[in-house]
Amino acid sequence: MDHNRTRAAVLAGVAGWVPPGTVTNADLEARLDTTDDWIRSRTGIAERHTVPPGMATRELAVEAGRLALKSAGRDDVDAVVLATATPDRLCPATAPEVAAALGLGPVAAHDVAAVCAGFLYALSAGVGAIAAGFADRVLVIGAETFSAIVDPQDRNTAVIFGDAAGAVVLRAGDPDEPGAIGPIRLGSDGTHSDLIQIPAGGARQRAARTVPEPSDHHLQMQGRKVYRHAKERMAQSAREVIERSGWTVEDVDRLATHQANARISEAVADELGVPRDRVLSNIEHVGNTSAASLPLLLADSAAAGRLRTNDRVLLAAFGGGLAWGAASLTWPDVTALAVHTYRG
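== Beta-ketoacyl-[acyl-carrier-protein] synthase III ==
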């Protein structure tokens, strides 16, 4: 998707929300064969957040969506796109329930499933709806309840993932104004679908009439292979977006990568030649929140003053599928709303 259009999608509101439950590295030390030093040195994470009993992805999405609408000064949109790998149910999609809970009426609403790259795929859908004239305003949400799919006894995943939601409001505008979403590049490689997966619960396992192992109901990830693909794919798509934006690497004021792992974000920055002091990060306090990661990072960074009006921002994400993407924008004058319960 290129920038050569007359009707653009402009970021008009941004927000993030994390649930109140906190799991610290000390909590994990008490039940897993791990230490605070091991987790911090390999992931950069000190704590992550989880939903209380009875709360799931819909509630997270509604909280972030409500704040994003407030940030944009709106109480209506024409469509809702929800990126999530943890929908409340396999059927139906969660987005229509989110739209109803927000009082948005019978607007178009659908889910997007691209795991940790989901927000950029959802953003692309929102941009496309506005560019085509289908909508004038779109609420794009990333929300995840990974605590529901991670094995709490699995050291490889339990130390990484957290629950959260982030959202942006897009409005129709001019391609040259601050906040206009620039070029977006998306990609996938299904030959490596087994690197990040939940083997049981889908149509393939059910159709085979097999009895899954208990572990097959939890997220499984081959971390070392994922690391290599994530670095290469995010850097590749980011380079393409830099070129299509008419920028150079030196023009990038802020690099916002999916918060998978602090080492991956630094490796992508090094691969691109972006100085590490321009890399935005909040992974220390929220962990990997999958599709919620990017909008939460943007909201958190803007609210904290690390992301300022007219900063040229490069976004990149990578996740299961495999799926990845990158996008660019010049940051607008917008009031970000981020619920920083992790700083209380």
